[in-house]
Input
Amino acid sequence: MATTLIKNGTIVNSGETYKADVLIDGERISRIGSTLSRKADNVVDARGQYLVPGGIDVHTHLAMPFGGTVSSDDFYTGHKGAAFGGTTTHIDFCIQSKGESFEKSLKTWHDKADDKACIDYGFHMAITDLNAKTMEELPKLPSMGVTSIKLFMAYKGVLQVDDDTLFQAMRIAGKSGILSMVHAENGDVIDTLVSEALEAGNTSPAWHGRTRPHLCEAEATGRAIAMSGLADAPLYVVHMTCESAVDQLRLGQKQGLKVYGETCTQYFMTSQADLERPGFEGAKYVCSPPIRTKHDQEALWKAVADGTLAVISTDHCPFNFKGQKDLGKDDFSKIPNGMPGIEDRMYMTYDRGVRKEKISMNKWVELNCTNPAKLFGLYPRKGTITVGSDADIVLWDTKATKTVSAKTHHMNIDYNTYEGKRIRGLPTKTFRRGHLIVDDGEFLAEAGSGRFLRRERVKL
Ligand SMILES: [Zn+2]
Output
């Protein structure tokens, strides 16, 4: 097993910042100290750079079937993009097909990932069909390495579950050390609003946002939180976008319920104005829940800073502008939902968050690395630079700059959400379990070298 010594860097964890050398032995961090002089097979000088834990993106959809097409990044290209952005772990959603066992659905997702993976990964189980059989199978998910489930309160007729299913699934999950996640939007109301808009001839991308008002999200968030209390099960609300929903979460937390929330990079940085761009351009920004207002962006920065929201993820679900998004050219409801971002998350939130003094660098690590590991059964194996942890380490250069563009990104998609944005603060080297997988612009990981992570039961 090779050893690597990273010298002269400054470690940034969620709770501390200090100068130290780090010795990696094989795949783990074996020593941390000032001026370690031990011989190592490889020595990296990190003078002037920060060492941050590898990013963990707990909300992604690689190679996911949706609306008659499949998201454009697979487990190779998505992982390549992630690695270039300083993300070394992600958790993807395995979607149960109706009538299928969880075990069978997981096999499908393992097959997508096995030979392609370049970073480490886990799966959440998205439940679409809870019946007598799958209710019995649910408590066995942790033995398959899966300790979180997802339930959709929107996408009526496709993924949406009713309140009975929501309640029963959460109750079993709570007893089994499984974290329940919800997509919180009122799918029934949205269905009505979408039909009305289309009947009135309103077909442009802007109507995607207009037919999914923030109160649909706030209502469903409040309902899910109440359900979490009724079911005595911890809850994690994915991709929260707006002040009214965050207020519901804050209230639940005040009531002592074990409720946690996540937002995604794009909700800080894009708004309804992007959905209203001329022509069909707005389709690039169609995701659910929709991007909101400048006021909501500020409310989200405040909520991550004060700890109401625990995690920043991406909901990375890329569809090409040409050939995929245009399925909805004449009908916004047929535009595949999702935006790319697995590569952009760390530097966009650093530039817009840390540099603009919305959050500290430690808070940025907490939101992007540490809390995701803690909430999803990966801590302290991941999400921190500590002796004994996996050597997932990113060298971060706060002076490096670039202009974000689809021309230079590594994801397999023909546009970038943040096209043309000038940013400062970038990863220069990415280590995944001790292996240097990105070295100053060069990709060194082999397909199949990423590993499936069997996650611990969640104790919240
Ligand atoms: Zn999603």
Q: What stands out?
A: Residues 59, 61, 315, 317 surround zinc ion (CB under 6 Å).
